[in-house]
Design a protein that fits this description.
globular; mainly beta; single chain; 30% strand; two-stranded antiparallel sheet; 54 residues
Amino acid sequence: MVDGESMSPTLEHGDALVVARLPAGPGDVVVAQLPDGTPVVKRIHTLRGGGTFT
């Protein structure tokens, strides 16, 4: 479930997400996991030198 408004209007607070492991690139919305296990939703902005920046 989306918790917060930071991805609005693409995703709204309370939206349910279906996720799959697929290649991702600039403009894609991804779910990442923080070291404590908390999932976060971000949009990829730029890929440079092997790193991902959101």
